[in-house]
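Q: what does this look like with NAP bound?
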Amino acid sequence: MTTTILTNKPLAGKTAFVTGGARGIGAAIVKRLAADGASVAFTYVSAQSKADELVQEIQSSGGQAVAICANSADFDALKAAIQQTIHSFDGIDILVNNAGISSMKPYDQFALEEFDQLIDVNLKAVFVAIQATAPQMKSGGRIINIGSISAEFNPFPGNSLYVLTKAAVAGLTRALARDLAPQGVTVNNIQPGMIDTDMNPENGAYAAGAEMIPLGRYGKAFEIANMVAYISSEEASYITGASLNVDGGASI
Ligand SMILES: NC(=O)c1ccc[n+]([C@@H]2O[C@H](COP(=O)([O-])OP(=O)(O)OC[C@H]3O[C@@H](n4cnc5c(N)ncnc54)[C@H](OP(=O)(O)O)[C@@H]3O)[C@@H](O)[C@H]2O)c1
């Protein structure tokens, strides 16, 4: 029988790469993985000062973090950031595809350029990052996509393209979990509900939606990071291909 020994640094010796890690859910993920002992490289595109502050915060508490400017929609830049991380840290063990954008409007008002933008950041970049990272992953590697419960449950009109991308991420997760299982790499999709960030502030346009949440409140970014930490850990060794809702019960 194999027993897992729990330590307060369960990810010591691991390297994580997180897209969109300077703020919101991504920043909570970066902090948590670093606190659990991982060396963390993360990308940002606009939030340079927040990225620098986060690196400082992690380094001053004894952790290791590096911020890399890379637009996920610039696939060469994304691949270069991954190669830089693999080279600097001797590989990547945990890939978190977090960067995402949302746009809500009536379906007949979307320009096809916006369609392409949402697909590029929310979906194509996920595939590009997995293609660039997975081949070098050792057994025990983790690919974690940040999808959305809107892939399964969408109570708001005007969400056609965002839902399309997040439903595709769930499908991609299932298919790639099968492709990567022989390599010992798991692929999972964490689906947040309504989480208080710049994208969806708890006092913003969708605040009334909190009434539909059984737990009666928006979630906090750290509550998504908790699930990422669990899936990253050895404890989650038998979970792959799953879409895991962290939504206060909103989708039940
Ligand atoms: N908040 C929610 O209620 C909710 C619910 C379900 C799913 N999600 C998903 O959770 C993830 C994080 O969302 P959030 O709420 O934290 O959003 P957020 O506060 O708007 O932050 C978005 C993050 O994505 C990064 N990003 C956006 N476009 C990028 C690009 N082209 N290249 C690289 N990075 C890019 C941003 O980087 P910069 O800071 O550098 O601009 C930022 O770090 C997204 O995938 C989102 O779809 C959120």
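The longest helix spans residues 112-133. The longest strand covers residues 186-192.
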